[in-house]
Design brief:
Strand order of the largest sheet: 3-4-5-6
Structural class: alpha+beta
Shape: globular
Distance between the termini: 145 Å
Number of helices: 4
Length: about 200
């Protein structure tokens, strides 16, 4: 009987020593599983917070549109320009094409075209003149000019030059008067020969 009790106690001790490691192993396995689940959730959360490539591309495209506003439309128009011959007897009409994006550029482009000699070799009466500024208020325009010595013509040349600039700008329907200034001043005569009205009005 005493031997049987001793044997039983010994069996219980062996079983207890086996249960403790198994319990520890089970606990560690549970902790590892919980840690993996937490890491997986963290990775999933990070992926959810990161914007998709399509969202990034859309935002980048919108930012580029804000940085680069659309360019204004370039308009083209064929206009009449006026030249004379070497003897300065009368004016000859020729056609030319100008490009512009707004009304101010249109006025500047017309003057720039008027400064060029005709393709056939007829000289421009405004070749040496410089346009300092241009301003439009309603149907009235003001051209501020600079006239170096080589731009100043004799009486016949001045008369034709005035006629040429009037015909050039009065072909535009929205212009009914032109005020010509020289270096910002309202002068009595453009080149010293002809009286200059302020403004010149469309007849």
């Amino acid at each position: 009987m005493k031997r049987h009790v001793t044997t039983s106690l010994f069996s219980v001790l062996i079983a207890a020593t086996m249960i403790v490691p198994l319990s520890a192993c089970g606990s560690r396995a549970l902790q590892d599983e919980q840690q993996q689940t937490t890491q997986a959730g963290s990775v999933k959360q990070q992926n959810t917070n990161q914007p998709s490539s399509s969202d990034t591309n859309s935002e980048q495209a919108a930012a580029n549109e804000e940085k680069d506003p659309p360019k204004p439309e370039v308009k083209k128009e064929q206009i009449s320009l006026y030249y004379t011959d070497d003897e300065m007897l009368d004016l000859h009409e020729q056609k030319a094409e100008i490009e512009y994006t707004d009304s101010k550029q249109k006025l500047e482009a017309a003057f720039a075209a008027l400064k060029k000699d005709d393709a056939k070799g007829e000289p421009s009466l405004w070749k040496h003149a410089e346009l300092r500024s241009v301003k439009q208020e309603g149907a009235a325009i003001t051209l501020d000019l600079h006239l170096p010595d080589e731009a100043r013509l004799g009486a016949p040349g001045e008369m034709l030059a005035l006629e040429a600039i009037e015909k050039t700008y009065f072909q535009f329907q929205d212009i009914t008067s032109i005020d010509l200034l020289v270096d910002g001043d309202s002068v009595d005569s453009l080149m010293g020969h002809m009286d200059l009205d302020h403004p010149i009005t469309k007849q």
